[in-house]
């Protein structure tokens, strides 16, 4: 009765990433109403600097009230339906993107395509670059939503580039080449490699070496590079953020073929903490991609009301400077709080400098080095400890025991509570295993003594 797309389950909704959310929703934590409920730590949302945005709104009522110099612009905005977007908004966006990159890169608003969030921007870009059955290489671990955004409706295949904990999950030439060869053996036509920089779920920025490997690889294989930079404004520690565009410019690649095969995806969901506004974009130096993506963007436009409000906000350079600085400061403090809280429970994290989450090493809590044991631990932490965290398997990590744990979508007190819960869990667990091994020791002794008694009697 229905289309194969509607009835197939390739959307990825049944991954533990989304299942955790469903279970959380059936029993959400609330300090007053439900203090024993599940704490949501599987949502990469930035609520730490919301007060700054709210304070700006209070001081600028015209932006919300759709007024300019006191006069209503309601009619103008209500009738606006150009899929190229409001020029003022695009100008402000490119300036904001440049500011995040320390103004080392200049962006042209004509190369920008608006979309309803990075979700829509990623899918639109894939529709422009690949046909059903083509493949994209993705370094692991990767954002679980990509199975939906890149594959589901486009029919494109994802081929993982396996990265390992032995080098902090860095992308190597060898891993890229191995994935490419694997795709070829499967008769897949590789159209590009897609990275998230800063990485979701690792919370790290890419090194210049990694970016150079990627660019050289794209040149050698004649493929695209897509850099999802939605977390670029969350870099709170050194080393600083290097955008793929900057790395290519530093190699003077502007007038070479690869320049038109480098594309950026960005949104205001993470850096400004506005996922509900659905503001995303594609930036590409490829005229044909920009033109096709602009036409496709009519399936997921950003409302003119939102564009108007945000163009006013981004035009306030004093505000954006203050916001960026303060937001990074708060993220850093939060991250430190989580890292030290986990450390007190004997749990280590990958060293990170960006993002709204930690990549947490819980390998020492696994009953065996398997993904079954990871799922077993995840269920315990979700249902018994009451924390919704995302298991590495949902991010296609190739090694069991890693989890993504978010820290910016809750209050300081809730994070404190979460850290207490995890510490209690680890302590209880080790007490239990100590008393289990004590019991085991005693029963071994009892068995030994009774067999010694028997031997004595028999003699
Ligand atoms: C790497 C990455 N890309 C894209 C998205 C989707 O962002 P948006 O809310 O702008 O659609 C997310 C959301 O978590 C993400 O982590």
| Main pleated-sheet profile | 7 strands, mixed
Indicate the percent of residues in helices. 40-55%
- Strand order, largest beta sheet: 4-10-9-8-7-5-6
What is the level 1 CATH name of the largest domain? Alpha Beta
Number of helices: 16
Shape: globular
Number of domains: 2
Kindly report the CATH topology of the largest domain: Aspartate Aminotransferase, domain 2
Are any ligands bound, and if so which?
pyridoxal-5'-phosphate
Radius of gyration: 25 Å
Number of E strands = 15
Describe it:
A hairpin with a 7-residue loop joins strand 11 (348-349) and strand 12. The chain has a seven-stranded mixed beta sheet, sandwiched between helices. It has 459 residues and is of the alpha/beta class. It is built from 16 helices and 15 strands. The model has no long low-confidence stretch (mean pLDDT 94). The chain has two domains: 4-49 and 327-432, Aspartate Aminotransferase, domain 1, CATH 3.90.1150.10; 51-320, Type I PLP-dependent aspartate aminotransferase-like (Major domain) (Aspartate Aminotransferase, domain 2), CATH 3.40.640.10. The chain is globular. It is 47% helix and 13% strand. The chain has helices spanning 4-7, 16-26, 50-59, 61-64, 74-79, 87-100, 117-129, 146-152, 173-185, 208-221, 244-250, 287-296, 304-315, 317-344, 371-385, 412-458, and strands spanning 39-40, 67-68, 71-72, 112-115, 135-139, 157-161, 190-196, 224-228, 262-267, 280-284, 348-349, 357-361, 387-388, 390-391, 402-406. Helix 6 (87-100) packs across helix 13 (304-315) and helix 7 packs across helix 12 (287-296). Pyridoxal-5'-phosphate is lined by residues 44, 117-119, 143, 145, 196, 200, 228, 230, 267, 269, 275, 280.
């Amino acid at each position: 009765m229905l289309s194969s797309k509607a009835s197939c389950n390739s959307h990825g909704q049944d991954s533990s990433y989304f299942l955790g959310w469903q279970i959380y929703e059936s029993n959400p934590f609330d300090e007053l109403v439900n203090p024993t409920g599940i704490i949501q730590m599987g949502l990469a949302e930035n609520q730490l600097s919301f007060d700054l945005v709210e304070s700006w709104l209070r001081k600028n009522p015209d932006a919300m009230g759709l007024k300019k110099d006191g006069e209503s612009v309601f009619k103008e905005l209500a009738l606006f339906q150009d899929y190229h977007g409001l020029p003022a908004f695009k100008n402000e966006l490119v300036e904001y993107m440049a500011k995040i990159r320390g103004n080392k890169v200049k962006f042209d608003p004509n190369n920008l395509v608006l979309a309803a969030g990075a979700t829509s921007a990623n899918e639109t870009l894939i529709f422009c670059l690949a046909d059903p059955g083509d493949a994209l290489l993705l370094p692991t671990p990767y954002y679980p939503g990509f199975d939906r955004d890149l594959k589901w409706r486009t029919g494109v295949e994802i081929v993982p580039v396996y990265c390992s904990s032995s080098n902090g999950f860095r992308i190597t030439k060898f891993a890229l080449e191995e994935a490419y060869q694997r795709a070829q053996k499967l008769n897949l036509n590789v159209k590009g490699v897609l990275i998230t920089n800063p990485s979701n779920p690792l919370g790290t920025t890419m090194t210049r070496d990694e970016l150079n490997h990627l660019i050289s690889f794209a040149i050698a294989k004649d493929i695209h590079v897509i850099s999802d930079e939605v977390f670029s404004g969350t870099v709170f520690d050194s080393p600083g953020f290097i955008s793929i565009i900057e790395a290519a410019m530093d190699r003077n690649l502007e007038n070479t073929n690869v320049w038109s095969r480098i594309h950026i995806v960005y949104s205001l969901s993470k850096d400004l903490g506005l996922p509900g506004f659905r503001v995303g974009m594609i930036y590409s130096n490829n005229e044909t991609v920009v033109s096709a993506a602009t036409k496709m963007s009519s399936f997921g436009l950003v409302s003119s009301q939102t564009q108007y409000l945000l163009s006013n906000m981004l035009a306030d350079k004093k505000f954006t400077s203050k916001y960026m600085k303060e937001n990074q400061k708060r993220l850093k403090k939060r991250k430190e709080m989580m890292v030290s809280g986990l450390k007190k429970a004997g749990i280590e994290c990958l060293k990170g400098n960006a993002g709204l989450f930690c990549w947490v090493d819980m390998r020492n809590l696994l009953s065996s080095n398997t993904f079954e044991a990871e799922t077993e631990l995840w269920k315990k932490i979700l249902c018994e400890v009451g924390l919704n965290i995302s298991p590495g398997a949902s991010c296609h990590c190739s090694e069991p025991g890693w989890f993504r744990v978010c820290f910016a979508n809750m209050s300081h007190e809730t994070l404190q509570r979460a850290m207490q819960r995890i510490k209690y869990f680890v302590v209880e667990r080790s007490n239990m295993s100590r008393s289990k091994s004590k019991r085991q020791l005693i029963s071994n002794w009892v068995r030994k003594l009774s067999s010694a008694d028997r031997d004595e009697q028999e003699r």
